Amino acid sequence: MEAYLLHDANAGSNLKLMIMIQEEGMKGYGIYWTVLEFLRLQNEYKASLKVIPILAQKARVTTATLKRIIYDYALFEVNETSFSSPGLSRRMEPWDAQQEAKKEAGRRGGLVNQQRIRDAKTSSALANKLNKENKENPSLSPQGETGRRKEEILLTPPEYTLNRQTHNYQGLMEELARQKVTDIHDLNAILRLTRFECHPETDD
User: Which spans does this entry mark as compositional bias, Basic and acidic residues (predicted)?
Assistant: First the structure.
């Protein structure tokens, strides 16, 4: 679909085209569409006047014939250096808008993914830091009641909690760090209460 070109079913009923066909025959109509197909593939749908001889060879007509099609029937817009088709540019506007919307959606999606990756890395770094601090400064609170396993790993958050618009896991962890809450058991208890927990796999 990158080479998409809309061909109106009633294009041949256009007055300018009808005049051109009357003068040049259906051969002229074919040349006209050959030029449009060429312009469709050019940047901004315009081409240098210097390509006319080359385009004439492609269409297997004389340069003079091709120039008549381009210059004499007001089908193309010609200036000192280039030529284009206002009709082609107009018909391509919906397509161009659609392609631009896709590019913008892709760009926004990429930015969202990048932010999620950054948030995940930050959250992981905070968890690793707290785990390290807990090992270096073990809690003095009593542990090891009967039937209770000592927690040594900080619970990791589910992916959805990394969405800053609905959750603030990173802010919670930063605040706990500021308050010097480093005991793994205490941290996990807070995460459970705030529904930020995702239980790690443990051996039975």
Answer: 90-107
